[in-house]
Amino acid sequence: MKNKVIVIGGGTAGMEVAGQLAKHDCTVTLLERSAETGGHVRDWYHLFPDRKDSREVINYLENLIRHKSISLFTDTDVNDIVRENDFFVVRTSDGKELQADAIVVSTGFDLFRSERKEEYGYGIYDNVISSADLEKMFRNDEIKLQNGNIPSKIGMVHCVGSRDEKVGNVYCSKLCCVTAVKQAIEIVKRIPEAKVFCFYMDIRMGGALYEELYKEAQQDYGVNFIRGKVSEVSQDIDNKLITKVEDTLTGRPLKIGLDMLVLMAGMEMAESGQKIALSAELDTGENRFFKATDLHYGSNKSNKNGIFYAGTCTAPMNITETISHARAAVIDVIDYLNDRSN
Amino acid sequence: MQTEGKKRIWSEYNKEIADDHYFYVRSCIRQSFFPGSEQFFLKFLRDDLRKDVLENPSHTTCTGIGYHADVVPFSTIMTVIARHYALMKEAGYKNIVISCVTSFGVYTEILETWKHFPEELEKTRDYLRRATGREFDLPLNMAHTSDLIYKFRNEIAEKAKYLLINHKTGKPLNIVEHVGCHYAKIFPKYGVGGAEFPNVLGGMIEAWGGKVIDYPERRHCCGFGFRQYLVQANRGYSLSNTVKKFDSMKPYKPDMVLTNCPGCTMFMDKWQYTIKEMNGTVYGDNGESIPVLTYEELAGLVLGYNPWDLGLQYHMVQSEPLLKKMGIHYDPADKYRTRDGRQMPVPENMINV
Question: Was domain A4-108+270-341 assigned CATH 1.10.10.10?
Answer without folding.
Answer: no
